[in-house]
Amino acid sequence: MLPSYDGSVPRVGVVTDSTAAGPLAASPNLRVVPLTIIAGGDEFPDSGSAVSARVLAALGEGLPVSTSQPSAQAFAAAYREAAKTCDTVVSVHISGGLSGTVHAAALAASAADVPVTVVDSRTAGAGLAVAATAALRAADLGGSAASVTQAALRAARASVTYFAVGSMEHLRRGGRITRAQAVVGSALGVRPVLILRDGKIEVDHIARSRMGAQRRLVDVVERPLQRQGDWSLIAYHCADPSSVEPLAAALRDRFGLPVSIVDVGGVLGAHVGPGLTGVAVVPGA
C-alpha cells in the first residue's frame, strides 16, 4: 500500500487520454480525456468497453471511420476539475507523432488556472497506461511536478510495443505509416510485424503467415526482457480476445511470465483495423 499524502509539497494531479490501453487506477487524482471516433457519420467518445467492437463493426460494413483528438476545451475542463484538489497538473499523452492530442493539451495548459506540464509520452496503448500509472504513483507519494513528469517519461521510454495487423491500409489511410510502407506490407499477402519506436510506427519484420507473425512477436520480446529490471507482458487485441490467446499462451510458455490480455480501444482499433495481435513489454509494478 502506498503511504498517504501528507500535504508537505504541492499536490500534483494527473491527466491522460483514452489511448492508454490497460488497467488504470480508479483514483480521484487521475482524469482521462477521451478522443473522438467518427464512424459512418456518427460521433462518439472513445470510452467504454463496447467502443472497439462498434469500430470494428463499422469497418466491417465498409463505413468510413476516423478519429479526432480531444478539443482544447475538453482538456481545459479536466484541468479545472484537477485544480479543485491539486496545485499543479502533469498531463501525459499519446505520441505527438501519432496524434495532435498533446498539442490540444498544450493549448489548454497555457490558459489553465494551475501550472500544467504536458508530456509527450512518445508511445500509446500499454506504454501510455504504464506512464500514466507511474505518474499517478509518484504523485500519490507526494512527488513534485518534475518528479512526476520524470516518472512518466521513464516508464514510457522503457516500454516496447510490437504488433501485427491484418492489413496496412488502415494505418496508411490514417497517415500513421507511409504509402511505401503500406505497399511493402501488402505485397503477396504477407503479414507485417510493426514496432512503435520513438513515437512512430515502423516495419520491424515481414512474416509470411499469421503463425509466422506470432512467432516473430514471441521472438522479439526476448530482446527487451534481457534488460535489467522487472517486466510485465501485455497481449493486445481489438474486440476479439480469443484471437490473441494463442500469442499469450506462447509468451507464457517461453518466458514464464504472467501475460495480461488488453483491448486496445476504439481509437487505436480504428487505425490498425481487424486482425490485430500484439505484445507490449512494460515496466513491472
Automatic annotation (TrEMBL):
Q: Which UniProt keywords apply?
A: Lipid-binding
Q: Which SUPFAM superfamilies match?
A: DAK1/DegV-like
A GO molecular function for this record? lipid binding
The answer to whether the entry has keyword Hydrolase is no
Recorded hits in Pfam families, A to Z, give:
DegV
Q: Which InterPro entries match?
A: DegV, DegV_C, DegV_domain_contain
Q: Which PROSITE patterns match?
A: DEGV (PS51482)
**What is the protein named?**
DegV family protein with EDD domain
Can the keyword Cytoplasm be found in this entry's annotation?
Answer: no
Q: Which domain of life is it from?
A: Bacteria
